[in-house]
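Run folding on both entries below.
>entry_1
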Amino acid sequence: MASPDPRALDRAAELIRAAARPVVIAGGQCAAEDAPWLRALAEALPAPVLTTSPAKEALPETHPLALGILMGSEHDDAVLGLADLIVTFGLDPMELNPRRWPYPALVVCLARTPHSGFPVTPLVEVVGDLALILEELAPRLKGQTQADWDMWELDRLKKAGNL
Protein backbone atom coordinates (compact mmCIF):
# COMPACT_ATOMS: atom_id res chain seq x y z
CA MET A 1 0.00 0.00 0.00
CA ALA A 2 1.32 3.46 -0.89
CA SER A 3 2.41 5.93 1.76
CA PRO A 4 -0.18 8.53 2.76
CA ASP A 5 0.01 11.88 0.99
CA PRO A 6 2.13 14.24 3.18
CA ARG A 7 0.02 17.28 2.19
CA ALA A 8 -3.17 15.48 3.25
CA LEU A 9 -1.51 14.47 6.52
CA ASP A 10 -0.44 18.08 7.15
CA ARG A 11 -3.96 19.37 6.49
CA ALA A 12 -5.58 16.65 8.62
CA ALA A 13 -3.19 17.47 11.49
CA GLU A 14 -3.97 21.17 11.16
CA LEU A 15 -7.70 20.50 11.48
CA ILE A 16 -7.28 18.06 14.37
CA ARG A 17 -5.01 20.50 16.28
CA ALA A 18 -7.58 23.27 15.83
CA ALA A 19 -10.57 21.17 16.99
CA ALA A 20 -12.00 21.80 20.43
CA ARG A 21 -14.52 18.95 20.27
CA PRO A 22 -13.40 16.20 17.92
CA VAL A 23 -15.30 12.92 17.65
CA VAL A 24 -13.95 9.73 16.09
CA ILE A 25 -16.16 7.36 14.10
CA ALA A 26 -14.49 3.98 13.57
CA GLY A 27 -15.69 1.77 10.75
CA GLY A 28 -15.32 -1.70 9.35
CA GLN A 29 -11.93 -1.06 7.70
CA CYS A 30 -10.56 -0.82 11.25
CA ALA A 31 -9.18 -4.33 11.68
CA ALA A 32 -8.09 -5.95 14.95
CA GLU A 33 -4.50 -4.84 14.40
CA ASP A 34 -5.70 -1.22 14.07
CA ALA A 35 -7.52 -1.20 17.42
CA PRO A 36 -4.46 -0.06 19.44
CA TRP A 37 -3.96 2.82 17.02
CA LEU A 38 -7.62 3.83 17.38
CA ARG A 39 -7.29 3.79 21.15
CA ALA A 40 -4.08 5.85 21.01
CA LEU A 41 -5.74 8.45 18.78
CA ALA A 42 -8.84 8.70 20.97
CA GLU A 43 -6.81 9.02 24.16
CA ALA A 44 -4.33 11.52 22.71
CA LEU A 45 -7.03 13.99 21.70
CA PRO A 46 -9.10 12.94 23.88
CA ALA A 47 -12.14 12.30 21.72
CA PRO A 48 -15.25 10.18 22.19
CA VAL A 49 -15.53 7.24 19.78
CA LEU A 50 -18.61 5.92 18.04
CA THR A 51 -18.29 2.79 15.92
CA THR A 52 -20.29 1.18 13.17
CA SER A 53 -21.53 -2.36 13.81
CA PRO A 54 -18.59 -4.01 11.98
CA ALA A 55 -16.13 -2.09 14.18
CA LYS A 56 -17.91 -2.51 17.50
CA GLU A 57 -14.98 -4.47 18.97
CA ALA A 58 -12.38 -1.86 17.97
CA LEU A 59 -12.58 -0.09 21.34
CA PRO A 60 -13.85 -1.99 24.37
CA GLU A 61 -17.23 -0.74 25.51
CA THR A 62 -15.80 -0.34 29.02
CA HIS A 63 -13.35 2.30 27.78
CA PRO A 64 -14.47 5.76 28.99
CA LEU A 65 -14.26 7.20 25.45
CA ALA A 66 -16.28 4.37 23.84
CA LEU A 67 -19.79 5.66 23.27
CA GLY A 68 -21.30 2.72 21.42
CA ILE A 69 -22.54 2.03 17.94
CA LEU A 70 -23.41 4.78 15.48
CA MET A 71 -27.09 4.25 14.83
CA GLY A 72 -27.98 7.27 12.69
CA SER A 73 -30.46 8.35 15.37
CA GLU A 74 -31.07 11.14 17.84
CA HIS A 75 -28.74 9.35 20.26
CA ASP A 76 -25.79 10.16 18.01
CA ASP A 77 -26.87 13.79 17.88
CA ALA A 78 -26.06 14.18 21.59
CA VAL A 79 -22.35 14.08 20.73
CA LEU A 80 -22.03 14.60 16.97
CA GLY A 81 -24.16 17.72 17.10
CA LEU A 82 -21.66 19.27 19.53
CA ALA A 83 -18.56 18.22 17.60
CA ASP A 84 -16.53 20.71 15.61
CA LEU A 85 -14.59 17.94 13.85
CA ILE A 86 -15.47 14.35 12.97
CA VAL A 87 -12.52 12.08 12.27
CA THR A 88 -13.55 8.92 10.49
CA PHE A 89 -11.15 6.02 11.02
CA GLY A 90 -11.54 3.12 8.62
CA LEU A 91 -15.10 4.09 7.79
CA ASP A 92 -16.60 2.78 4.58
CA PRO A 93 -19.27 5.23 3.36
CA MET A 94 -21.58 2.28 2.77
CA GLU A 95 -21.71 1.80 6.57
CA LEU A 96 -23.52 5.10 6.98
CA ASN A 97 -27.22 5.54 6.76
CA PRO A 98 -27.83 7.00 3.27
CA ARG A 99 -29.88 9.85 4.69
CA ARG A 100 -28.68 13.43 4.55
CA TRP A 101 -25.67 14.07 6.80
CA PRO A 102 -27.11 16.37 9.49
CA TYR A 103 -23.91 17.33 11.32
CA PRO A 104 -22.25 20.71 10.73
CA ALA A 105 -18.77 19.59 11.85
CA LEU A 106 -15.89 19.37 9.41
CA VAL A 107 -14.93 15.82 8.45
CA VAL A 108 -11.44 14.31 8.17
CA CYS A 109 -11.37 10.83 6.65
CA LEU A 110 -8.58 8.38 7.50
CA ALA A 111 -9.18 5.23 5.45
CA ARG A 112 -7.64 2.33 3.56
CA THR A 113 -9.55 3.19 0.38
CA PRO A 114 -10.80 6.47 -1.10
CA HIS A 115 -14.07 7.77 0.27
CA SER A 116 -16.91 8.03 -2.22
CA GLY A 117 -18.34 11.13 -0.55
CA PHE A 118 -21.75 9.59 0.11
CA PRO A 119 -23.50 10.76 2.28
CA VAL A 120 -20.75 13.12 3.44
CA THR A 121 -17.78 14.59 1.62
CA PRO A 122 -14.70 14.93 3.83
CA LEU A 123 -12.75 18.17 3.84
CA VAL A 124 -9.54 16.12 3.96
CA GLU A 125 -8.99 12.49 3.07
CA VAL A 126 -5.87 10.53 3.99
CA VAL A 127 -5.71 7.14 2.28
CA GLY A 128 -3.39 4.29 3.23
CA ASP A 129 -2.69 1.71 5.87
CA LEU A 130 -4.42 2.97 9.03
CA ALA A 131 -1.45 2.23 11.30
CA LEU A 132 0.91 4.05 8.93
CA ILE A 133 -1.47 7.02 8.69
CA LEU A 134 -1.51 7.41 12.47
CA GLU A 135 2.23 6.82 12.74
CA GLU A 136 2.78 9.66 10.24
CA LEU A 137 0.08 11.85 11.79
CA ALA A 138 1.29 11.61 15.42
CA PRO A 139 4.36 13.87 15.11
CA ARG A 140 2.27 16.42 13.24
CA LEU A 141 -0.07 16.69 16.24
CA LYS A 142 2.62 17.94 18.61
CA GLY A 143 1.46 21.11 20.32
CA GLN A 144 -2.17 20.12 19.99
CA THR A 145 -4.29 21.27 22.92
CA GLN A 146 -6.57 18.86 24.71
CA ALA A 147 -10.17 18.63 23.52
CA ASP A 148 -12.83 20.49 25.46
CA TRP A 149 -15.20 17.60 26.18
CA ASP A 150 -16.80 17.32 29.59
CA MET A 151 -15.87 13.70 30.31
CA TRP A 152 -18.30 13.52 33.22
CA GLU A 153 -21.16 14.56 30.94
CA LEU A 154 -20.14 11.99 28.30
CA ASP A 155 -20.02 9.31 31.00
CA ARG A 156 -23.44 10.39 32.33
CA LEU A 157 -24.98 10.23 28.86
CA LYS A 158 -23.40 6.82 28.23
CA LYS A 159 -24.70 5.39 31.53
CA ALA A 160 -28.15 6.87 30.99
CA GLY A 161 -28.38 5.04 27.68
CA ASN A 162 -28.54 8.22 25.66
CA LEU A 163 -25.57 7.18 23.54
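>entry_2
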Amino acid sequence: MRPDLDAISALDAVVRQGGFARAAAALHRVQSAVSYQVDKLEAQLGVQLLDRTRYRVQLTPAGEALLAEGRRLLGQADHMASMARQFADGWEPRLTVILDGILPLEATLRALKTLAEEKVPTRIQMKVEYLGGVQFRFEKDDADMMVVKDYVGRPDLEAHELREVQCVLCVSPRHPLAQRSRVTLRDLHEHVELSVQDSSDRGDDEHMFGGDRVFYLSGFIAKKQALRMGLGFGWMPRYLVHRELQAGTLREVRYAGGSRYSFTPKLVHRTSTPLGRSGRRLAELLLGGSLAGHEE
Protein backbone atom coordinates (compact mmCIF):
# COMPACT_ATOMS: atom_id res chain seq x y z
CA MET A 1 0.00 0.00 0.00
CA ARG A 2 1.14 3.54 -0.70
CA PRO A 3 1.78 5.70 2.36
CA ASP A 4 -0.95 8.16 3.37
CA LEU A 5 0.09 11.83 3.34
CA ASP A 6 -2.02 12.46 6.46
CA ALA A 7 -0.14 9.67 8.23
CA ILE A 8 3.21 11.16 7.16
CA SER A 9 2.01 14.51 8.46
CA ALA A 10 1.10 12.87 11.78
CA LEU A 11 4.55 11.29 12.05
CA ASP A 12 6.18 14.61 11.23
CA ALA A 13 4.15 16.33 13.95
CA VAL A 14 5.10 13.70 16.54
CA VAL A 15 8.80 14.19 15.80
CA ARG A 16 8.62 17.97 15.66
CA GLN A 17 6.49 18.31 18.80
CA GLY A 18 8.40 15.67 20.77
CA GLY A 19 5.50 13.32 21.50
CA PHE A 20 1.99 12.17 20.65
CA ALA A 21 0.13 14.44 23.06
CA ARG A 22 1.75 17.62 21.77
CA ALA A 23 1.37 16.45 18.16
CA ALA A 24 -2.35 15.86 18.72
CA ALA A 25 -2.74 19.35 20.15
CA ALA A 26 -0.86 20.88 17.22
CA LEU A 27 -2.99 18.94 14.71
CA HIS A 28 -6.24 19.57 16.63
CA ARG A 29 -6.92 15.84 16.89
CA VAL A 30 -7.28 13.35 19.70
CA GLN A 31 -4.10 11.54 20.68
CA SER A 32 -5.48 8.11 19.81
CA ALA A 33 -6.11 9.22 16.20
CA VAL A 34 -2.52 10.42 15.80
CA SER A 35 -1.17 7.21 17.33
CA TYR A 36 -3.39 5.15 15.01
CA GLN A 37 -2.12 6.97 11.92
CA VAL A 38 1.53 6.45 12.84
CA ASP A 39 0.89 2.76 13.62
CA LYS A 40 -0.88 2.39 10.26
CA LEU A 41 2.02 4.05 8.43
CA GLU A 42 4.49 1.62 10.01
CA ALA A 43 2.28 -1.26 8.97
CA GLN A 44 2.00 0.09 5.40
CA LEU A 45 5.75 0.53 5.07
CA GLY A 46 6.64 -2.65 6.94
CA VAL A 47 9.29 -0.98 9.12
CA GLN A 48 9.43 0.51 12.60
CA LEU A 49 9.64 4.28 12.34
CA LEU A 50 9.66 5.28 16.01
CA ASP A 51 11.55 3.97 18.99
CA ARG A 52 8.93 3.99 21.77
CA THR A 53 11.11 2.37 24.46
CA ARG A 54 12.53 5.67 25.67
CA TYR A 55 10.92 8.42 27.71
CA ARG A 56 10.70 10.56 24.60
CA VAL A 57 9.91 8.87 21.29
CA GLN A 58 12.68 9.04 18.71
CA LEU A 59 13.03 8.10 15.08
CA THR A 60 14.71 4.86 14.20
CA PRO A 61 17.45 5.03 11.52
CA ALA A 62 14.89 3.83 8.96
CA GLY A 63 12.41 6.36 10.29
CA GLU A 64 14.90 9.21 9.81
CA ALA A 65 15.46 8.28 6.17
CA LEU A 66 11.79 7.71 5.40
CA LEU A 67 10.58 10.85 7.19
CA ALA A 68 13.08 12.94 5.20
CA GLU A 69 11.51 11.58 2.01
CA GLY A 70 8.05 11.99 3.48
CA ARG A 71 8.68 15.67 4.23
CA ARG A 72 9.69 16.13 0.60
CA LEU A 73 6.39 14.57 -0.46
CA LEU A 74 4.47 16.84 1.91
CA GLY A 75 6.23 19.88 0.46
CA GLN A 76 5.36 18.78 -3.08
CA ALA A 77 1.76 18.20 -2.08
CA ASP A 78 1.55 21.68 -0.55
CA HIS A 79 3.09 23.16 -3.70
CA MET A 80 0.64 21.25 -5.86
CA ALA A 81 -2.30 22.52 -3.80
CA SER A 82 -0.98 26.07 -3.99
CA MET A 83 -0.64 25.84 -7.78
CA ALA A 84 -4.18 24.47 -8.07
CA ARG A 85 -5.51 27.43 -6.07
CA GLN A 86 -3.61 29.85 -8.31
CA PHE A 87 -4.87 28.19 -11.51
CA ALA A 88 -8.41 28.35 -10.16
CA ASP A 89 -7.79 32.05 -9.52
CA GLY A 90 -7.05 32.76 -13.19
CA TRP A 91 -3.34 31.97 -13.54
CA GLU A 92 -2.88 29.94 -16.74
CA PRO A 93 -0.82 26.70 -16.55
CA ARG A 94 1.20 27.57 -19.67
CA LEU A 95 2.07 30.70 -21.67
CA THR A 96 3.88 30.62 -25.03
CA VAL A 97 5.44 33.82 -26.39
CA ILE A 98 7.06 34.27 -29.82
CA LEU A 99 9.60 37.09 -30.00
CA ASP A 100 10.88 38.69 -33.19
CA GLY A 101 14.67 38.36 -33.17
CA ILE A 102 15.15 41.89 -34.50
CA LEU A 103 14.01 43.17 -31.10
CA PRO A 104 16.31 43.21 -28.07
CA LEU A 105 15.86 40.53 -25.46
CA GLU A 106 16.60 42.85 -22.56
CA ALA A 107 13.09 44.16 -21.94
CA THR A 108 11.52 40.73 -22.33
CA LEU A 109 14.07 39.12 -20.02
CA ARG A 110 13.50 41.84 -17.41
CA ALA A 111 9.77 41.14 -17.59
CA LEU A 112 10.31 37.38 -17.25
CA LYS A 113 12.63 38.00 -14.30
CA THR A 114 9.89 40.04 -12.63
CA LEU A 115 7.40 37.21 -13.15
CA ALA A 116 9.88 34.75 -11.66
CA GLU A 117 10.40 37.00 -8.64
CA GLU A 118 6.62 37.28 -8.25
CA LYS A 119 6.51 33.46 -8.26
CA VAL A 120 3.76 33.15 -10.85
CA PRO A 121 2.79 29.48 -11.26
CA THR A 122 2.62 29.63 -15.07
CA ARG A 123 5.15 27.72 -17.15
CA ILE A 124 6.35 30.34 -19.65
CA GLN A 125 8.03 29.35 -22.91
CA MET A 126 9.63 31.97 -25.14
CA LYS A 127 10.78 31.27 -28.71
CA VAL A 128 12.75 33.60 -30.98
CA GLU A 129 11.93 33.72 -34.69
CA TYR A 130 12.62 36.10 -37.59
CA LEU A 131 10.57 37.91 -40.24
CA GLY A 132 7.53 35.88 -41.36
CA GLY A 133 8.63 33.06 -39.11
CA VAL A 134 7.28 34.93 -36.08
CA GLN A 135 3.63 34.76 -37.12
CA PHE A 136 4.18 31.33 -38.70
CA ARG A 137 5.37 29.97 -35.33
CA PHE A 138 2.66 31.89 -33.46
CA GLU A 139 -0.02 30.14 -35.51
CA LYS A 140 1.67 26.73 -35.77
CA ASP A 141 2.28 26.47 -32.00
CA ASP A 142 -1.04 28.09 -31.11
CA ALA A 143 1.00 30.55 -29.04
CA ASP A 144 -0.60 33.06 -26.70
CA MET A 145 1.37 36.16 -27.65
CA MET A 146 3.87 37.45 -30.20
CA VAL A 147 6.08 40.52 -30.11
CA VAL A 148 6.63 41.22 -33.77
CA LYS A 149 7.94 43.69 -36.34
CA ASP A 150 5.35 42.92 -39.03
CA TYR A 151 2.34 40.64 -39.09
CA VAL A 152 -0.80 39.95 -41.11
CA GLY A 153 -3.79 41.29 -39.19
CA ARG A 154 -6.95 39.31 -38.52
CA PRO A 155 -10.20 40.15 -36.70
CA ASP A 156 -9.28 37.81 -33.84
CA LEU A 157 -5.90 39.45 -33.21
CA GLU A 158 -5.43 42.48 -30.96
CA ALA A 159 -2.25 44.56 -31.25
CA HIS A 160 -0.61 47.08 -28.93
CA GLU A 161 2.14 49.38 -30.14
CA LEU A 162 5.56 49.35 -28.53
CA ARG A 163 8.43 51.80 -28.80
CA GLU A 164 9.73 52.58 -32.29
CA VAL A 165 12.88 50.83 -33.47
CA GLN A 166 15.29 52.28 -36.04
CA CYS A 167 17.34 50.25 -38.52
CA VAL A 168 20.55 51.37 -40.23
CA LEU A 169 22.14 50.10 -43.46
CA CYS A 170 25.64 49.10 -42.39
CA VAL A 171 28.93 48.00 -43.87
CA SER A 172 32.52 47.51 -42.75
CA PRO A 173 34.82 50.54 -43.19
CA ARG A 174 37.02 48.26 -45.35
CA HIS A 175 34.17 47.38 -47.72
CA PRO A 176 34.10 49.10 -51.15
CA LEU A 177 30.64 50.56 -50.42
CA ALA A 178 32.05 52.46 -47.45
CA GLN A 179 34.29 54.47 -49.77
CA ARG A 180 31.44 55.81 -51.90
CA SER A 181 29.87 59.18 -51.14
CA ARG A 182 26.66 58.12 -52.90
CA VAL A 183 25.54 54.51 -53.32
CA THR A 184 22.93 53.50 -55.88
CA LEU A 185 20.81 50.36 -56.10
CA ARG A 186 23.05 49.14 -58.92
CA ASP A 187 26.05 49.56 -56.62
CA LEU A 188 24.36 47.45 -53.95
CA HIS A 189 23.60 44.70 -56.47
CA GLU A 190 27.32 44.34 -57.14
CA HIS A 191 27.92 43.14 -53.58
CA VAL A 192 26.68 40.48 -51.16
CA GLU A 193 23.63 41.40 -49.10
CA LEU A 194 23.40 39.95 -45.59
CA SER A 195 20.07 38.93 -44.08
CA VAL A 196 18.64 36.64 -41.40
CA GLN A 197 16.92 33.37 -42.13
CA ASP A 198 13.13 33.35 -42.25
CA SER A 199 12.15 30.04 -40.69
CA SER A 200 8.75 30.12 -42.37
CA ASP A 201 10.20 30.18 -45.91
CA ARG A 202 7.51 32.71 -46.79
CA GLY A 203 9.81 35.17 -48.50
CA ASP A 204 12.45 37.76 -47.83
CA ASP A 205 12.30 40.94 -45.80
CA GLU A 206 10.48 43.69 -47.70
CA HIS A 207 13.48 45.97 -47.12
CA MET A 208 15.89 43.71 -48.98
CA PHE A 209 17.34 45.03 -52.22
CA GLY A 210 16.73 42.12 -54.60
CA GLY A 211 20.30 41.36 -55.62
CA ASP A 212 21.48 37.95 -56.83
CA ARG A 213 23.86 37.29 -53.94
CA VAL A 214 22.34 37.04 -50.47
CA PHE A 215 23.84 35.32 -47.46
CA TYR A 216 21.37 34.29 -44.76
CA LEU A 217 22.66 34.24 -41.19
CA SER A 218 21.20 32.57 -38.10
CA GLY A 219 20.56 35.88 -36.30
CA PHE A 220 21.63 39.49 -35.89
CA ILE A 221 24.67 38.73 -33.74
CA ALA A 222 26.08 36.55 -36.53
CA LYS A 223 25.04 39.19 -39.05
CA LYS A 224 26.92 41.90 -37.17
CA GLN A 225 30.01 39.70 -37.09
CA ALA A 226 29.76 39.14 -40.85
CA LEU A 227 29.36 42.88 -41.42
CA ARG A 228 32.45 43.67 -39.35
CA MET A 229 34.42 41.11 -41.36
CA GLY A 230 33.48 42.92 -44.57
CA LEU A 231 31.48 40.01 -45.97
CA GLY A 232 28.69 42.24 -47.24
CA PHE A 233 26.18 44.96 -46.36
CA GLY A 234 22.86 44.79 -44.56
CA TRP A 235 20.26 46.34 -42.29
CA MET A 236 20.85 46.25 -38.55
CA PRO A 237 18.70 47.50 -35.66
CA ARG A 238 20.46 50.60 -34.39
CA TYR A 239 20.48 49.49 -30.74
CA LEU A 240 22.83 46.65 -31.76
CA VAL A 241 25.33 48.74 -33.72
CA HIS A 242 25.26 52.28 -32.33
CA ARG A 243 28.57 51.75 -30.49
CA GLU A 244 30.20 50.31 -33.60
CA LEU A 245 28.94 53.24 -35.66
CA GLN A 246 30.34 55.68 -33.11
CA ALA A 247 33.67 53.86 -32.98
CA GLY A 248 33.90 53.56 -36.77
CA THR A 249 34.10 49.76 -36.79
CA LEU A 250 30.91 49.87 -38.86
CA ARG A 251 29.77 52.62 -41.20
CA GLU A 252 26.40 53.75 -42.46
CA VAL A 253 25.99 53.15 -46.19
CA ARG A 254 25.33 56.41 -48.05
CA TYR A 255 22.50 54.86 -50.03
CA ALA A 256 20.63 57.28 -52.29
CA GLY A 257 17.32 55.64 -51.43
CA GLY A 258 17.79 56.17 -47.70
CA SER A 259 20.04 54.43 -45.20
CA ARG A 260 17.59 54.33 -42.30
CA TYR A 261 14.04 53.26 -41.64
CA SER A 262 11.94 52.88 -38.52
CA PHE A 263 9.15 50.53 -37.53
CA THR A 264 6.82 50.20 -34.59
CA PRO A 265 6.78 46.66 -33.15
CA LYS A 266 3.52 45.24 -31.88
CA LEU A 267 2.53 43.05 -28.99
CA VAL A 268 -0.18 40.80 -30.45
CA HIS A 269 -2.50 38.33 -28.76
CA ARG A 270 -5.73 36.55 -29.60
CA THR A 271 -9.13 37.91 -28.62
CA SER A 272 -10.74 34.49 -29.12
CA THR A 273 -8.76 33.10 -26.17
CA PRO A 274 -8.18 35.98 -23.73
CA LEU A 275 -4.90 36.12 -21.85
CA GLY A 276 -4.81 34.76 -18.32
CA ARG A 277 -3.27 36.58 -15.39
CA SER A 278 0.33 35.73 -16.35
CA GLY A 279 -0.21 36.85 -19.94
CA ARG A 280 -1.83 40.09 -18.84
CA ARG A 281 0.97 40.72 -16.36
CA LEU A 282 3.64 40.07 -19.00
CA ALA A 283 1.88 42.38 -21.46
CA GLU A 284 1.65 45.05 -18.76
CA LEU A 285 5.39 44.80 -18.09
CA LEU A 286 6.32 44.93 -21.77
CA LEU A 287 4.01 47.80 -22.61
CA GLY A 288 5.28 49.73 -19.63
CA GLY A 289 8.92 49.32 -20.68
CA SER A 290 10.94 49.64 -23.86
CA LEU A 291 11.77 47.03 -26.45
CA ALA A 292 14.06 49.40 -28.27
CA GLY A 293 16.89 49.14 -25.77
CA HIS A 294 19.18 52.00 -24.81
CA GLU A 295 20.08 54.07 -27.83
CA GLU A 296 22.72 56.76 -27.77
